[in-house]
Design brief:
Elements lengths: L11 H17 L5 E7 L2 E9 L4 E3 L1 H11 L11 H23 L2 H31 L20 E5 L2 E7 L1 H24 L9 H16 L28 E5 L4 E4 L2 H9 L8 E7 L7 E3 L4 E4 L11 E4 L2 H10 L3 E3 L1 H7 L2
Antiparallel strand pairs: 1-2, 1-5, 2-3, 4-5, 6-7, 6-8, 8-9, 10-11, 10-12
Helix pairs in contact: 1-3, 1-5, 3-4, 4-5, 5-6
Length: 349
């Protein structure tokens, strides 16, 4: 007869991982889960709204003052039932993880824990989106500032432009601890399933699962890459003009993954030099290839031509190329000088 694998006892390593999960989830109770960063010219240092398991933190009063002008409801911890029940939900998952590791110790209970944890994550994100939608769309009709058809819903995750503010929504320490706990639960199940396929656990058994874990953590830690510039839709982060020429675009990506788009190298350099961003916060800079298909290229790898005949949108008059052949071909048509990216940065100091 086939052995009932659902009642299979958990081995040492999966139980250890679940024990770690319980510690991580208890830690979540004391750190912020999520943050929404707001950046605007009048706030060069930025504003931040932090969501803890039991309260709202950060620059709440300043943000409430700004929200009042555009008709958004003010934010108060006591208005959200989530802050009352969320700590108990976190404690429940921490306790269940510990119970499965120390007392229940079966694959059936591990699967139950993982399914409940994933369902909770889905419900929590849906509730967060609903909260953002409500605050961004249900506006006071008597507000001092009214823009017909404008809504102020922050992004669920990532970056979004709201009037002259850039809103960047991302998990905080507690959010990443939640993700890590979920990954460890999945790894524990993979290890247990691999144990079920073999009568004994060899020293090589965990290798595929560990490789998968490393891959998942790598994906979770990856920063945002360059995004295609949408002509006629995206606005330059410096001059605020709508980007209309796909030959001269550029992007800055910050250490936290926020993306700033520009219609001209001149705007990128001016933005980099301004108080709007600290150069230490810049992770990568990309320039658009002058030639089709106008891919974005890392600035450190480009070949540049400066020529008044290029007539770029804001007078930077600098074209970027992926290789020296493209540069030389363009130089035959546009009289100018070849310039290195580092020399361009140093000239802008």
């Amino acid at each position: 007869m086939r052995k009932n694998t659902s009642s299979q006892k958990l081995t040492g390593l999966p139980r250890l991982l679940l024990f770690i999960c319980s510690i991580l989830l208890i830690t979540v109770l004391f750190v912020p889960l999520w943050q929404i960063q707001l950046a605007a010219p009048q706030y060069p240092e930025g504003l931040v709204l932090k969501m803890y398991p039991n309260r709202i933190g950060g620059n709440v009063e300043i943000i409430n003052g700004l929200n009042h002008y555009i008709g958004m409801k003010t934010l108060h911890t006591e208005d959200f039932i989530e802050f009352t029940i969320l700590p108990y939900i976190i404690i429940f998952f921490a306790a269940l993880s510990l119970a499965v590791a120390l007392f229940l110790k079966t694959k059936k209970w591990l699967i139950t824990l993982l399914v409940l944890f994933i369902l909770f994550g889905i419900v929590a994100m849906a509730d967060f989106w609903k909260w953002e939608y409500d605050y961004g769309h249900n506006l006071d009709p008597n507000a001092a500032i009214q823009v017909p058809g404008m809504a102020y819903q922050p992004p669920l995750i990532g970056y979004k432009k709201l009037l002259n503010f850039g809103a960047f929504s991302v998990p905080d320490v507690g959010g990443w601890l939640f993700v890590t706990a979920g990954v460890l639960m999945i790894l524990a199940l993979i290890l247990q399933l691999s144990k079920g396929r073999k009568s004994s656990l060899s020293t090589k058994t965990p290798a595929p699962a560990i490789a998968m874990l490393i891959g998942m953590l790598s994906l979770a830690s990856c920063t945002t890459g360059p995004q295609p510039i949408r002509l006629g839709i995206d606005a330059c982060s410096f001059c605020k003009m709508t980007i209309a020429d796909n030959r001269f675009g550029a992007e800055i990506i910050t250490q936290k993954g926020k993306i700033f788009k520009f219609d001209d190298t001149h705007c990128l350099l001016a933005f980099r030099k301004s108080d709007a961003i600290n150069t230490n916060d810049i992770k990568e800079i990309y320039l658009t290839d002058f030639n089709e298909p106008h891919d974005l290229i890392e600035a450190s790898k480009v070949f540049l031509l400066k020529s008044a005949d290029l007539r770029s949108p804001m007078g930077g008059n600098i074209a970027c190329f992926t290789d020296e052949t493209g540069l030389n071909t363009a130089a035959e048509k546009f009289a100018g000088e070849k310039i290195a990216w580092e020399a361009l940065l140093n000239a802008d100091q």
